[in-house]
Specification:
This protein has 579 residues and is mostly helical.
């Protein structure tokens, strides 16, 4: 068969010489040992935890060796392309502080551009044409229906599915049959003519898993689709060569494709990059473990962490504990050290499935957020609110001084021990909500209805915003005594039957009335932040509600009495006197 003539018929026209591509994309002038790694997602709009897992590993390996990390977009499958997906990838990885040196929409050295595979179509076709000329590739005219029938037959016979051996129906077409099909206008793809035998096994050094046994490939895989665009397998081999990739860290699901990739590099005459296949992220599901699922587990998507407002450093710390077995111990000894100072190693990555535990991430997140200053927390929360918060939440930041006071209190800044109440931005914004919005719901009061209203009434009678914490608490003790509660805890503990409760129960009534919650940071400081007018109105509003309910119980017609009590609590004259 005249392969050169066939190659011209299948891919007509002049292409640059293969050597010219070697000259156009020369070896990188990097120091010895410097690694060139990459992240190469498809533009599907879904970037997940596995992408981040691999990105952190690739970034650390590249940069600590003085090398390069680049971003390549593998857009050979237009059916899966989603508008805005590349920007989503960049934004997600930027959030987690993954620093690319060059690549799609990033800039940097453009010697190895373009970074989108569809823009590199000429390069792929030049090499496909060369393989056809060498008799290592051929046209396949099988229809989808024929391929489906082939797979069904293989499945029925309990054989490996694929296009190989006796099932490679177009592999041995005669020259006459090929040209007749072409003359008839039949669509075709180009397949690699495999020379492998799966019975032959050889050792392969995986940078993560160590020595593994790999069979030779016997699949005649498609390398160029009918639209003239290559498949992922073929494009990645050419791109990794000409972008001068030295190490590929990728998911272990690609292990099954490794024999194909080995044969492609060999067929193209390229030196292979080294490969490391990282383990899958697993989730505990009852008594068993399973892979994180896009359908079942929202935490697989990186958008989940941005929307919830996870602190990027916390996620990165947790990912590093999963990625390298010695990181956790190192971080305990060096809690303030930059994460980049940790010496990352591919050989210390897990060789089997890694359990992803959201509870552990939450604990790490609390630790990391507790280290921030009030100003740093302000900026973190505001950035999240600007993108994901409600209009009300965005408004929390209008009064910077109030927000800083709120955060200082809630984080325990200046106290003996830092509080660890915040897990994510969304949770933190809900936690501090009562400082900026009046409660819509209230946790359950333990005190009786009358006691609630009476305690609130006595407190408002004596409450002065100017009071220091000690004076303020003395007045709460006084309200306790007036309502049959023990003013001193030791008295209550000595004789609990003599009292309705303790001063702590009285404080709880005022705490819930002010914040809606039974447990909060220091109540005096909360009232100082809220201001006298707001405190009085919150307590008086609830006091009126409780008084109204109590008066109805004892005298259905006495609602007006409750209204007068409410006006009195706000310092207003009786109804009618202000006319």
């Amino acid at each position: 068969m005249n392969y050169k003539a066939l190659a011209e018929r299948l891919l007509p026209g002049e292409y640059p010489s293969l050597q010219s591509y070697e000259e156009k994309y020369p070896p990188r002038g990097l120091p010895k040992g410097a690694e060139v790694t990459r992240l190469a997602p498809s533009p599907t709009g879904f970037i997940h935890l596995g992408n981040l897992f691999a990105a952190i590993a690739n970034e650390r390996i590249a940069h600590q060796s003085g090398g390069i990390l680049y971003l390549r977009i593998e857009d050979t499958d237009l059916k899966r392309k989603v508008d805005g997906a590349v920007e989503a990838v960049k934004n997600a990885l930027r959030y987690f502080d993954i620093k690319f040196d060059e690549g799609a929409e990033i800039g940097g050295d453009d010697t190895y551009a373009p970074w989108y595979q569809r823009q590199r179509a000429e390069i792929y076709r030049a090499f496909v044409k060369h393989l056809i000329e060498e008799g290592r590739a051929y046209p396949c005219f099988c229809t989808e229906e024929e391929l489906t029938a082939l797979r069904e037959e293989q499945t029925k016979n309990k054989e490996i599915t694929g296009y190989y051996g006796k099932y490679a129906k177009c592999r041995n077409l005669s020259e006459e049959e090929i040209y007749r099909n072409l003359d008839e206008g039949k669509p075709f793809v180009i397949r690699l003519k495999s020379l492998g035998n799966p019975e032959n096994k050889h050792k392969f050094r995986d940078e993560i898993k160590g020595d593994i046994t790999v069979p030779e490939n016997d699949q005649d895989v498609v390398i160029l689709k009918s639209d003239g665009i290559p498949t992922y397998h073929f494009a990645h081999a050419i791109d990794d060569h000409f972008m001068r990739t030295t190490l590929v860290i990728r998911g272990e699901e690609w292990l099954a494709s490794l024999p194909i990739h080995i044969e492609l590099f060999d067929a193209l005459g390229f030196e292979r990059p080294r490969y490391g296949h990282n383990c899958s992220l697993m989730k505990q599901d009852g008594a068993s473990r399973r892979k994180l699922s896009k359908r079942k587990d929202p935490e697989l998507s990186l958008e989940f962490y941005r929307k919830e407002g996870y602190f990027a450093r916390a996620v990165k710390v947790y990912m590093l504990t999963l990625l390298n077995s010695n990181f956790e111990e190192w971080y305990r000894k060096n809690p303030e050290a930059p994460l980049d100072s940790f010496q990352f190693s591919a050989s210390k990555m897990s060789k089997s499935g890694t359990l992803f535990d959201l509870d552990k991430l939450n604990d790490i997140s609390k630790d990391e957020l507790s280290k921030l200053s009030a100003e740093e927390m302000f900026d973190f929360l505001k950035t999240w609110a600007d993108e994901y918060g409600s209009e009300a939440q965005k408004g929390y930041f209008a009064d910077r001084e109030k927000m800083l006071k709120t955060l200082t209190l809630c984080m325990g800044i200046g106290g003996k021990k830092r509080r660890k109440d915040f897990t994510t931005a969304s949770q933190a914004m809900e936690f501090i909500k009562f400082f900026f919005e009046r409660p819509e719901t209230y946790e359950e009061f333990r005190a009786e209805l009358y006691d609630r209203a009476s305690v609130m009434d006595h407190f408002l009678e004596s409450y002065r915003y100017e009071d220091d914490a000690q004076t303020w608490f003395a007045k709460i003790k006084q309200a306790a005594e007036l309502n049959g509660y023990a003013a001193e805890m030791k008295e209550y503990k000595a004789n609990p039957e003599a009292y309705k409760g303790s001063v702590a129960d009285v404080a709880e009534i005022l705490r819930i009335a002010t914040t809606g919650r039974a447990n909060t940071p220091d109540l005096w400081t909360i009232m100082q932040i809220l201001g006298e007018k707001e405190v009085r109105e919150r307590i008086a509003t609830l006091m009126w509600k409780f008084s109204q309910e109590w008066y109805r119980e004892i005298e259905p017609s006495a609602e007006e009495m409750a209204r007068e009590l409410y006006r009195e609590s706000l310092g207003l004259p009786p109804k009618g006197e202000n006319k």
